[in-house]
Amino acid sequence: MCLGLAIRLENNMIRKRKAQQEMEEISRMLERVLNGECIQPGEIGYEDTLPAKIRYQIRRISEKNQGVEARITRERDETKALIGEIAHQMRNPLAGVESYTQLLEGEISGEPGRTYLRALEQSEQRLHFLTESFIKMARLEQQMIQIKKTTDALADTIFSAVLLVQKAAEEKQMEVEVTGAEETKVWHDGNWLGEAVYNLLDNSVKYAPEHSKIRVVVRQDEMYTRIVVSDDGIGIPKGEENRIFQRFYRGSRVTGEPGFGLGLYISREIVTLHGGFMKAKRKEQGLEVAIFLPV
After folding, report:
1. Pair (167, 221) in one structural domain
2. Domain boundary, last residue among 144, 164, 185
């Protein structure tokens, strides 16, 4: 009797160990599917058991996921290519509109002709800005640009970006204050990083009130160089800190100001190509956006 009980206990232990091993194998397969791997036919076994049926179902899910991901990737790449092509095709007609607008300036002297001409110029400028933004976005997403890094002070890069927003800032009687840039050197592409900083400054000028100050602070520690742009503008609601870097996303508080939701997205892509990342931080009044670059 004791021998029979011992045998039954041993058999139970063997079954439990086998069931545990099968569950662990199923768990590993699910983890691989979650990581985007494809389960091969030879891995599922052909036994007529519940674990074998579960492995077969996991493989089917894996195959479907692979097909969906491939289709999404293909459609996304086609959309990116189409956007880039449309933007390039728009360049020549816009150049023609700009040329004819300039010719008309010398021909039209009275109102309401001058008013219509100014409206045409503004529309042309917005279309030109949108076209160039689409082209930059397409080049970044399709990895068609080359980041040429050199170890230089950030001063030239940041002050070049400040100059691009200087006129708009002066019209609103705003001050742009830069600290820490002269003393800080970092490995970067001045042209492209300057574009990233410009987009941050442009947003601050648009959404901060007149007579306010935009602050650009550069700090460096053992791991990162930080370029922090802060303003006293409309800010963002809680929960939008990451969404503002999405393509075509415009904050829920944005009203009346022209824009397409591409600036911060382009900045993030540029910073990513530099091996860095970006963060946004809400303030009691305004917004703080930081670029982190590896030292």
Report:
1. yes
2. 144
114 and 131 both lie in a single domain: yes
d(CA 263, CA 254): 14
> Model pTM?
0.64
* 70 and 20 housed in the same domain: yes
Q: Which domain holds residue 82?
A: 1-144
Cα–Cα–Cα angle for 55, 61, 65, rounded to 5 degrees: 145
* Parallel/antiparallel/unpaired status of strands 224-230 and 213-220: antiparallel
Torsion over CA: 39, 45, 46, 49 (sign): negative
Same domain membership, residue 241 and residue 139: no
pLDDT by 10s per residue, the chain, length 295:
566 666 676 667 777 777 777 778 777 877 877 777 777 766 666 667 777 777 777 777 877 777 777 787 777 777 667 666 666 666 667 777 777 677 777 777 777 777 777 777 777 777 776 777 777 777 777 777 788 899 988 999 999 999 989 999 999 999 999 999 988 889 999 989 999 999 999 999 999 999 999 999 999 988 999 999 999 988 888 888 888 898 888 877 776 666 678 889 999 999 999 999 999 999 888 999 999 999 8
Give the count of beta carbons closer than 10 Å to the beta carbon of residue 145. 15
Residues 19 and 118 in one domain: yes
Residue 223: CATH number of its domain: 3.30.565.10
Torsion, Cα 32 37 38 44, to 10 degrees, reads -20
Q: How far apart are CA 73 and CA 67, in angstroms?
A: 10
Angle between helices 263-273 and 190-207 (to 10 degrees): 150
